[in-house]
Write a structure and sequence with these properties.
Elements (H helix, E strand, L loop, with lengths): L14 E4 L8 E4 L5 E2 L4 E10 L2 E7 L8 E2 L2 E3 L6 H13 L3 E12 L4 E10 L9 E7 L12 H13 L7 E5 L5
Parallel strand pairs: 4-9, 8-11
Antiparallel strand pairs: 1-2, 2-3, 4-5, 4-7, 5-6, 5-10, 8-9
């Protein structure tokens, strides 16, 4: 799955799909400067933050899935670790300070070209609604709005979190494809 590309961002010449020498798959290759442009998955990081047995969720104020609930998560930035990215996303979306726990879920969202990773966390202060959220709220396990969750990856992370509660059972790995979304 190669996203469409027409021109080389290095020199502006046209690019073509071809298998570069020494490679085994098609890439976008500049026809003038020979730069190979790799398209690799983007990393999404999130945190299932808990306080007093309740889990922090945010109601989205942006598309996709405006108005649906989600685990605080977003794209990892260059120069930041997975854990730092999860903490930053939680701060941005829920105005919440957390203590990051352990990595517990990795979901390959193949059709979107993404990998979603989730950490456990402990909410250590207040919370609110950041720019990308309509509101944030703490939910007991039996109060989670399962039918109003924005993404399958967040649903899987919450399910695994609740199964593991109080234990570190390693990293749960899951693959989502369009047929399972």
């Amino acid at each position: 799955m190669l996203p469409a590309m027409k021109y080389c961002p290095v020199c502006g010449a046209e690019v073509a799909r071809e298998v570069p020498e020494g490679d085994n798959r098609e890439r976008w290759v500049c026809q003038r400067c020979d730069t190979v442009h790799y398209s690799n998955p983007k990393v999404v990081v999130g945190c299932v933050a808990e306080r007093d047995g309740k889990i922090l969720l945010c109601r989205r104020a942006i598309e996709p899935r405006y108005g649906y609930w989600t685990v605080p998560a977003g794209f990892l930035e260059l120069g930041e670790s997975l854990a730092a990215g999860a903490a930053r996303e939680t701060r941005e979306e829920a105005l919440a300070e957390i203590e990051i726990g352990h990595l517990f879920a990795s979901i390959d969202v193949v059709d979107a070209g993404q990998v979603h990773v989730f950490f456990t966390g402990r909410l250590v202060g207040g919370y609110g609604a950041g720019e990308e959220s309509l509101e944030s709220q703490l939910f007991a396990a039996d109060e989670i709005p399962w039918d109003e969750l924005a993404f399958q990856s967040g649903r899987y992370a919450l399910k695994m979190y609740l199964e593991d509660r109080g234990a570190n059972n390693g990293v749960h790995i899951h693959e989502l494809r369009r047929a399972r979304l």
